[in-house]
Amino acid sequence: MKKEDEIYTVRAIEKILPEKLKSFRKKQGLTTAQVGELLSKTPSAITLWETGKALPDVNTLLKLCNIYKVADLNEFLEPATPPDTLSLAKSEQELIKLWRNSPTNLKIAVKTILKQCAK
Does pLDDT of 39 surpass 70? Predict the structure, then answer.
């Protein structure tokens, strides 16, 4: 597996998702009890997700997107600032974010073009 593909490994999801869930909840000024009520879940279920001891199912994640005003599921999986991009310029960081959100066929096309330009 290539390094850029590691973002979506199970380990990455188990590490990133809980942090993101808690962060988005706090940004909306909600308690675990309030989120639990909106989802018909207990506050302890929300806490389990936010500590990584359990993971919500996809349908629940979609509901959380609405509650937390998150555009799509990818926002739950992207690290806030990937450690390997900290020293990069803002424009380079933007390109990396766009790259990571691009479909595979577009990545292949871009790689082909860049390889041709580098010759």
Answer: yes
Q: How far apart are the first and last CA of the chain?
A: 26
pLDDT on residue 54: 93
Residues 96, 69 within the same domain: no
Range of the domain at 7: 3-77
Q: What CATH number corresponds to the domain at position 26?
A: 1.10.260.40
Is 56 in contact with 13 (CB distance < 8 Å)? no
Q: How many structural domains does the chain have?
A: 2
CA distance 24 to 83: 20
Q: What is the mean pLDDT of residues 24-42?
A: 95
Number of residues in the chain = 119
Q: Per residue in 53-79, pLDDT tens?
A: 999 999 999 999 999 998 888 888 776
